[in-house]
Specification:
This protein is an alpha+beta fold. It contains 4 helices and 5 strands, in the order H-H-E-H-H-E-E-E-E. The chain is globular, with a radius of gyration of 15 Å. It starts with a helix and ends with a strand.
Length: about 150
Amino acid sequence: MTSPRLRLAAATAWYLLGATRLLTVVLPFGVVRRLLGEPAAPGGSEAPAPPDASAPQVARARAVGRAIGRAAGRTPWTSDCYPQALTARILLRGARVPHTVVFGLRRDDAGELRAHAWVTVRSAGGEPVAVTGGSTRAWTPVGAFNWQP
């Protein structure tokens, strides 16, 4: 059984996933990139660290991640990493939680180039906390967008 608060958060995330999925389908990446704001740093071997977040902000970011994960598994459309990252950006901004949206690339076993997007928050102790995107060790960051209140 889940709490009413998680169900409400997941419902909100579900609607936002639909809106962000639509954005990713109809708008070119360059337009979405401008909506994300100024890049944190040019591409490189490591993504820039997100700004530090307080313990309550980290807890809120984890709750946002759970809600997005729950909602993404229940959409009739594709809710992969890209709309999840955009949804996390919207929800974390609304909650005033500092975070970073990162875009990365890698080659799969067949040599095909793959892309991935993820969102992280850094605790006051410096530990990175994944909000969406899971483990990102195999990905090379090529762009990042920090946000802080």
